[in-house]
Amino acid sequence: MKKFFSFLFENLLQFIYFIAFESALYFGLQYLLFDQTFTQDTKDPTIVPRWVSVVYFILLYLAVIIGAMLVLNNFVPRKYKHHITRWFWFALALILPFLVLLVNS
């Protein structure tokens, strides 16, 4: 029973760290890329008015996620490396809802 509660506590702690990292990354990139006033230079309609910022968001998000995974793989013991891979795939899956939020805002 003690092992079960230890497992739950570790997963809960990992989830809290993951949510904190992802929210800090999302709001930081949103502040850097999307908080400027937007003026459209041309009259041509576009699907996403700030498509350059969206592309920069995707590239910076991927760079930070991959960099964090590489750094964590160097510091975490071998028996916990599969946890890093799992959270990495969750972070990659989160890029789609983040893009929907950015485009709709």
UniProtKB/TrEMBL annotation:
Domain of life where this protein originates: Bacteria
The protein, known as: Uncharacterized protein
Keyword line: Membrane, Transmembrane, Transmembrane helix
TM spans (from-to): 12-34, 54-75, 87-104
Lineage: Bacteria, Pseudomonadati, Bacteroidota, Cytophagia, Cytophagales
